[in-house]
Amino acid sequence: MTGHGSGFRFGLEAEFLLVEAVSCRPLWHPELRFEELNLALEAIGVSDFDQEGLDLIPLHRKRMPFVVEGYQLPGPDLKPTALLPKGVEIRTPICTSVEECVATFATLHGRMQRSLSERGYRAATLSFHPIEDHFEGPQNKRRYDHWQWAMEAMTTYGPDINVSVPPDVAAQLDLHELHAKVNYYAPALTALTVASPLYRGDLWRIRGNVGKSVRTYHRSTIAPAISIHPKENLRLEFKPLEMTSYLLDYQAYFLLWLALILDERSWAARRSKPGSTTWDRLPDLASKQKAPGSARMKSCQRRRARWTIGVSIAGRSIIFVPGWRPDESPPMTSSISSSASNPYRTYCVISSIYDNAITFRRRSDPGAIGADDQLANVRRR
To answer: Which of 6, 87, 150, 379 is the most buried (most CB within 10 A)?
Structure first.
């Protein structure tokens, strides 16, 4: 389905925070200059990649798989006259398989890091600026909500997962139902990826608890989860997931998005039989009693999950455990899986019966794009 010749096309866009290469001090537009960053990106050799799907972004001088991301300062006609950088972005050319797209992204990432390091910078993988939290600029969009998000986006960093579908799939795709599925599933899928716990140089705290994603907290109030581009071979862009330094995660992001796009029969079954799936029961799980913490931890240890993530969304505590198989799931939990015979697939248990005291842990992954890209011990300037 996602291989060569399938008619599907894939593209990955990913934004990166910039830090000082030596000190890892986070940087922002007062210390970054568009012209310098653009020169660094233009110097990267990309002649071995085609330019299909790459647009010429305003203020940049040539099409390339890299752009300086930031806030466009408008002229009288709202055309951009300058750009205040928040970071940089990789935009892969159109690829014919998920594997090719992720491999292309990894290659481009390595080349970008080398060019930035020559100028004393490094691209860091984080979903919200760990120091800065507020930006205001003159209106640069005709629509008020677009302008508001443009200002909010100055502190956020995230990936866009792009899938273009072949004509036969496009002819059968019900965009109204796709929007409904995204509206239903996106919160849980986003919670699998939360990666922005830092705020103003400290852990982000909300209502007395440490939060897991200040980016999603800001983004969900105004920004859309998807963007549909009918004139680009029906390019479907999934936007709420957060940044990760693990290449396998990006591959999983594509598979999650494809599952939503193509899962028409089971979606029709869900509509016709309410409560027939674990997803339909998720809202009800919020009202169940929480299990004791000791039982929760022992259960996690028995399953030897690769990692666990505990989050709280809209007052509901949810735990995600990739690595659990459905037949091993504790009672009163819901689960999603692909193939019990494939040990390399991700299995997720989603439950609200546990509290959110579970900590995040992950084993060393050779598929990471660079562990040194992660910020640690961030302090106020």
So the answer is: 87
9: nearest Cα among 100, 89, 90, 91:
100
Contact between 82 and 8 (Cβ < 8 Å): no
317: left (phi over 0), alpha (psi -120 to 50) or beta: beta
In the block, which residue shows the tokens 């647009």? Answer: 55
> What pLDDT, on the 0 to 100 scale, is given for residue 271?
55
238 contacts 232 by C-beta, under 8 angstroms: no
**More confident site: 353 or 248:** 248
Name residues whose C-beta falls within 8 Å of residue 338's C-beta, 6 or more positions apart in sequence: 345, 346, 347
Phi-psi map region of 173: left, alpha, beta (phi>0 left; psi -120 to 50 alpha)? beta
Residue type at position 221: T
pLDDT band at 370 (very low <50, low <70, confident <90, very high): low
Q: Which residues contact 381 (CB under 8 A, 6 or more apart)?
A: 25, 131, 201
Amino acid symbol at 245: S
159-205 pLDDT tens trace = 999 999 999 999 989 999 999 999 989 999 999 999 899 999 999 99
Return the higher-pLDDT residue of 304 and 275: 275
The dihedral sign for the CA sequence 265, 339, 308, 101: negative
Rg value, the chain, Cα: 21
Apex CA 59: angle with CA 58 and CA 60, to 5°? 90
Nearest alpha carbon to residue 220 among 204, 203, 239, 243: 239
Distance CA 381, CA 358 (A): 31
Q: What is the pLDDT of residues 333-346, one digit of tens each?
A: 333 333 333 333 33
Amino acid at 204: W
Size of the chain, expressed as the number of residues it contains: 381
Contact 365, 188 (CB under 8 A): no
Q: What share of the chain is helix, strand, coil (3-state, %, to 5)?
A: 30, 25, 45
Question: Which pLDDT score, from 0 to 100, does residue 6 have?
Answer: 73
Burial letters 82-101, b for 16+ CB under 10 A, else e:
ebbbbbbbbbbbbbbbbebb
